Structure formats: C-alpha cells, structure tokens
Amino acid sequence: MDYQAGFFYLFSAVLLFAAFRVVTARNPVHAVLYLMLAFSQAAAIWLLLKAEFLGITLVLVYLGAVMVLFLFVVMMLDINVDVLRQGFWKHFPLALILGGLVSAELIAVLWVGFPTLTVDATAATVAMHAPDHSNTRELGKLLYSQYTYPVEVAAVILLLAMVAAIALTLRQRKESKAIDPAIQVRVKAEDRLVVVPLAPTPKAAATEQPKEEGQTS
C-alpha cells in the first residue's frame, strides 16, 4: 500500500466518522461543525483523485460561505432541541425504513455497478492528456452541455433554500422593534412634528434682597 492509499483510507475514515456525528450530535452547532469537517475530508479525497477544481470549489464555496451561513443561521434561530425531539420515536419506524432503503441502494451500487467498470492499459493510455490540459474546462463543457437540466434543477433548489432562509430570518418576533419601511416612506413632516401654541409666560417679579443689619439707606 503506497502513501496515496494510506491518505485515502485516513481521509475516508475521518469522513465517515464526521458524517456519523452529524446525524447523532445533540447540539445543532456541533452538527454543523462536524459537517464542515466532513466537507474538508471530501475535498482532500478529491485532491488525491486529481480533481483539483472540485476540491478547491468545495473548500471555497461550502466551507467558506455556505457552512458559515448555516452556522450563523443555526446560532441565530435559537433552536429548541427538546421540542424537536418530541416526535422522534413516533416517526422512527418510517425513518428506519427509508434509511434501510437508501443503504440497500448504496450497497447495490457498490457491489454491482462498480465491478463492471474495467479499463485496460490501452484505454488508459489513450485517455491520457497533455500536461497543459484543463480538467476545469472539460468539466464546464459537461455541466453546460450534457448535464444542463440537472444543473438548472440544482440552481432552482438552491434558490428555494435561499428564499426559505430569508423567510426564516424575517419572521415576526414579539421582542423585535423593527418598523415597516412602507410606513416610513408614507410618513409626512406634519405627522412627525406638532407645534403646540403656548401662551407667553410673564417674567417673575424680582425679589428685593434683605438689607443687612447696620446698613443705612
């Protein structure tokens, strides 16, 4: 076993552990942190597979932007974990069935689909490219030609997630003191300032200072 295989097994083990902790962590903030660890290990595996563009994109987009946004949203929403766990055992049988179905599909793909992919030495030699070949350009051609519809579907799903996140942050709260911008635009000057006429106040009469004893007028 060479060093690349050793790093692959190391990153894979950490990835599986982080993914397991994402599901089993009791604190939502800890779950998000474990998810960031899982993404970092997946990026390292992509770098080992010489998919540099995918690895750097995963680090910049997900670890640098999306996961930080998730972390701030989770911390701002102040999720009550006890309320979320009230219906856990009620929906546990359905979750167990769906989890078993997904696991069976993954096992079928791993044991049936992958062994049929055999590449001989001649095909591997033909598939080699020049040193200045850009895999990023080839990936872009595939995404916007052969996989155009999946890319559009993913864009729509991300847009819906963005709208849902904005809707969660704009919910009405009792302790909020925010003012409706439409009311601020329609306000008039006379509504903000009212001049109340008051009668003039007469000056107070000056009181004479008492004369000191022994002082003559």
Question: Can you summarize the main beta sheet?
Answer: none
- The global form is elongated
CATH superfamily of the domain at 1-81: NADH-ubiquinone/plastoquinone oxidoreductase chain 6, subunit NuoJ
- Beta-strand level of the residues, as a percent range? under 5%
Radius of gyration, in angstroms, nearest whole number: 34 Å
CATH fold-level topology of the domain at 1-81: Four Helix Bundle (Hemerythrin (Met), subunit A)
CATH architecture tag of the domain at 1-81:
Up-down Bundle
Estimated structural class? mainly alpha
In total, how many beta strands? 0
What does this protein look like?
The protein is an all-alpha fold. Among the domains are: about 1-80, Four Helix Bundle (Hemerythrin (Met), subunit A); about 135-170. It is about 70% helix and about 0% strand. The protein contains ten helices and no strands. It has helices at about 5-25, 30-50, 50-75, 80-85, 90-115, 120-125, 135-145, 150-170, 180-185, 190. Helix 1 (about 5-25) packs antiparallel against helix 2 (about 30-50). The radius of gyration is 34 Å and the shape is elongated. The N and C termini lie far apart (about 120 Å). Residues about 115-125 have low confidence and may be disordered.
List the helices and strands and how they pair.
Blueprint: H1 3-24, H2 28-48, H3 52-77, H4 81-84, H5 88-113, H6 121-127, H7 135-146, H8 148-169, H9 181-186, H10 189-192
Helix pairs in contact: 1-2, 2-3, 7-8
